[in-house]
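Continued from yesterday's entry.
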Amino acid sequence: WDWTLCTGGVCDVPVMGESLENEPWTAGYMEEGEIPSFKIFDASANGGSGAYYDAVADQDIPWMNLGMNVILDLNVVPDCNGDLGGTAWESDCGCVEEGNSGDDCDDCAGIPNGSATIQTYWVDADGDGLGSGSGSEFCDATVPLGWVLNNADINDDIFCYSNIIDECDVCDGENADMDCAGECFGDHWESDCGCVEEGNSGDDCDDC
């Protein structure tokens, strides 16, 4: 805006108000107490065809009939891309176009430029840190309780850190609970005559 073209360096900008008689031709004009908005025309824009830009006043002065107010500055503020009249805005992820949510750089936990990622987890039913079954994807910042990053558990019904479970389903048991007949928690016992059932004297093989 070239202020030197205005009388005394002050430019008159009439802001018209609605008729007190509600005449139809003034419909949509300013009413008492409303804040006027302004536009600035740039004749050099768009290859000389010009463009109107929303202008920002240095202060918001309510309109009143026959009022005369002084605005010191009336400017067109460029958007974050430096474009006059542009609609890009500054988000946590940087300057983005109008309509963009501004969370393009957010991680899965919603933290701008964060490090959280989506990973596959398996349920750990027995709480030994070893999972099993079908995997499900979760953000590693918000993993539900009881899910782990592996499906290595050979038996998720038996708590066993080592994941070494014997044939009797005992963690680190080394089949110590298997009797001589190969039965878990069985009653067979090893006699001089070999493996015999409980109640057997174990001397079936003895001579006279």
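--- second protein ---
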Amino acid sequence: MNLKTGVDSTSRMSFKNTRGLPFHGMGAFVGTGKTQRAHVYTAASIPVDPEAYKKIDPKKLAEELEVDMCAVNIGRFWMMDEIKFLVGETQSFHGVELRWGGDMTGAEMLTQFQSAYVPSLIRRSTVWTFKAGKPVCLLREPGGAVWVLQEYTKAVDPSLTPDNLNELGGKLKNLPKGWKFETKVLTKDLVLDTGRCGGWAAIIRDDLHCTYQGCAAARRAHQRTTRPGAPAPVTHGVPSGIREDLLGALLPPSLRLRLHTAGLPARRGAPPDAPPP
């Protein structure tokens, strides 16, 4: 395999004023069956040329890297205000500079490509900050789980812009029963930090392939306003500790069972760079 994976402990990317900025990325699939991993690469710097991804020939690149498949992100834009990322060294793929930013099971990445509103886990070391006074787009499940829009795409609906995302809910024709889309202006910074959950993030995509990250802080804030005596909201993304804490806070029983049988790590305090068994 001619592909460099994993983080460089000294390589950290940090960007401010990222809301609405274009970026690109790629997934490289290594292995087959239950052991297949999808390595996620992200833009080495932002903003980028929104059309740069067209330089990459996925089939040819997979052959060059000696991996099973490559998939390239198309027309994606960040929706957080600040980004911190622990990444790998810069690599050039057909002239597009990317850095390793995380990984997930191949099955989980394919689920994101093919199925809306099905949660998956990705292993990455990131801190997304949504600043006070700025709007955020949320999906609320009837059971209380809350998902925050982290990126939108023009791949399905080219008309989407940061200024009209408040209308996104009306375009989600396959929203599951009981789910609600809403926008709100933050009164405090919202920080989604995967370091507080062993280096894992829960994500979903909607009908239009926009991506959301699970947010326990928003869920708890919602509970506080709807259930007397509920605990005060926290400012981090998901509960810290073992995998069951993360899944129990955000994911339905069906996904918890599916990820358990997939063998994702369950031990407390697993370091972010420890590969799943």
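The chain has five helices and 17 strands. Residues 209 and 250 are 20 Å apart (CA to CA). Will compare against the first tomorrow.
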